[in-house]
Amino acid sequence: MGLEENIQVVCQDFLEADLSEATVIYMYLLPEALVKLKTKLESCFAQKTRVIISHHFSIPWWKGEEFLNSHIYFRQ
Questions:
Q1: What pTM was computed for the model?
Q2: What molecular functions are annotated in GO for this chain (predicted)?
Q3: Which residues, at least 6 apart from 3, have a Cβ–Cβ distance to it below 8 Å?
Q4: Per residue in 9-30, pLDDT tens?
Q5: Cα separation of 73 and 11, whole Å?
Q6: Are 54 and 73 in contact (CB under 8 A)?
């Protein structure tokens, strides 16, 4: 598809990861882990991030999430 140049996959502790350059964030985390990331994720929208996708679990404190199917929650 030719997207290899535009995609970077980072595998590291999500509390330590630098997400400031991310434009899309895809997560597969339990609700307890999502709560730990609240401040970090909210600050991402103040920067470059356009889309945050949580696989399977909704992001509890965000209203206006779009429910794409039985397992994907989308916030833009």
A1: 0.65
A2: protein-lysine N-methyltransferase activity
A3: none
A4: 878 888 888 887 888 788 888 8
A5: 21
A6: yes
